[in-house]
Amino acid sequence: MSASAKGFVMMSGGLDSQLAVRVLQRAGAYVETICFESPFFSADTAVKTAAALGVKLHVIDFTEDILSLIKDPPHGFGGAMNPCIDCHATMIRRAGELMEKSGFDFVATGEVKGQRPMSQNSQALLTVEKTSGLKGRLIRPLSALFLEPTIPEVEGKIDRSLLLDISGRCRDRQIALAKEFGIVDYPSPAGGCKLTEESYSRRLEDLMSHEGFDDHLLLKLLSVGRRFRLESGTSVILGRNGEENELLSSRAKDMPLSQLFVPSHEVSGPTALVPRLVASGDDKIVQDLVDAYVKGTTEKDRERFRPLQIL
Ligand code: SF4
Questions:
Q1: Backbone angles phi, psi at 50, to 5 degrees
Q2: Same domain for 263 and 145?
Q3: pLDDT tens, 235-281?
Q4: Which residue minimizes the CA distance to atom 1 of ligand 1?
Q5: Are residues 119 and 251 located together in one domain of the fold?
Q6: Mutation choice for ligand 1 from 37, 59, 85, 193, CB with most ligand atoms inside 8 A
Q7: What global pTM score does this model have?
Q8: Rounded average pLDDT over 65-94
Q9: Which residue(s) pair with 30 in the sheet?
Q10: Is residue 192 one of the residues assigned to a domain?
Q11: For the chain, what percentages of helix, strand and coil (3-state, to nearest 5) are there?
Q12: For the domain that residue 155 is a member of, what is the CATH number?
């Protein structure tokens, strides 16, 4: 075999991306890994996994990319505000840029043909290769034998005979391979991206149509508290427990236009963070809202605020 190929494997931390690393190494490639982080998904699992595999990991900030895709997703959204087709293609394109810059030969993913009927059928795999601009340089080592040989394979830098022909949703072969490679720690394949959650997406949509995405502090707080939107457009984030109350109080220090509200009597109750009061008179409404959620109040006390609640 000629000199070995160098490439970047897209690392989610899940089993398939770990197997992609090991299969490519076995086929003679030098491998580093890439993962992406944003306010909607973290790099934590990938960091842990890359360390366990002993491979170098490049963590790329994907915040601006994903925000612009949420505002205008060329291929639309999945079940919630997840622009998966474009997100995936953009990640591969970013990995391709790093490949060019580093003088590497390929980008690889742990995708398996037919594992996800919509996004991983043969046609979808080809489309991603084409739209990412990585024709001939995108390797799916777990399903490679169903696909045309890539340039590093043709050049003999990767031993194609050691790549695999896994397809479909059954995970038996992956589990067997994990044993063979001694991989014991892997998260379940689903989950990890908040954009796929319907309740989170409703908050995000509300933020997008009011404050927009410029303030990343607001983005980072999206999972926190009960959310209300007053008629004027004022947003209210109401802590649901002591931990959230403390978090809101500390975040307020970094938001110069924000105001904090606490119960008007000395009773146990929520803290409300208002990023910006839009109309005069809103402070009175927010105070009433906070008082309606103090300890001992009933659903009836809160009824009038229900129409304002986003979640
Ligand atoms: S689940 Fe989230 S991170 Fe994954 S492709 Fe979809 S939008 Fe991107």
A1: -60, -40
A2: no
A3: 999 999 999 999 999 999 999 999 999 999 878 899 999 999 999 99
A4: 193
A5: no
A6: 193
A7: 0.88
A8: 93
A9: 6
A10: no
A11: 40, 15, 45
A12: 3.40.50.620
